[in-house]
Amino acid sequence: MGCKYKRVLLKISGEALAGEKGHGINGSTVMKISQVIKNVTEMGVEVAIVVGGGNFWRGASAQDMDRTTSDYMGMLGTVINGLAFQDSLEKIGVQTRVQTAIEMRQIAEPYIRRKAVRHLEKGRVVIFSGGSGNPFFSTDTTAALRAAEINADIILLAKNGVDGVYSDDPNKNPDSKKFDKLKYIDVLNKSLKIMDSTATSLCMDNKIPILVFGIENPINIEKIIKGENIGTIIEEV
pLDDT per residue over 118-130, tens digit each? Predict the structure, then answer.
């Protein structure tokens, strides 16, 4: 079976890496996802990853702290997650590079677009850590930005606890309806909280499709690459 996409950007929330613990890093969860990424790279697909930091710190939710400071703390959380991912992938023989938006040379490469693309072309998995390097921007926005910069075919937006986009929170409202397809403008107009509006607008402007799916079963990543209809696709048509 062929691959539907050649270059993908996988956005994984920090919470997804915490597994059932809900906080920190669950090694077996990270390894399960890593194993599927290995399968995908062996199919010839180029994989870039943007990882969140919510399993350590959520910048936007700190109440009594300066927002900029709080966001920088969140960015550091994404670096911890990126290094954990790199270690997990390299244990199973996947060549990986971590690039950070905030320079920390002893730990990882600084983000350089041309270098990132070269790594992808050589079959390496590139993990983008440190968010966009700017406060007030989420890692969803980082995913949209990096996807545009590396010309990714699609953003695979991995969610924890939900398998697509619904009209309302399916965990609270059993009558909420799941969408198979949506336009970017619908996501913005309906205020569907699947991705922040900055990220959605950036994808709309650059015509980058977003596929929202559940990460509890990481094999979904492989199924999507092979063209199976899973989750909710957000695009212009």
Answer: 999 999 999 999 9
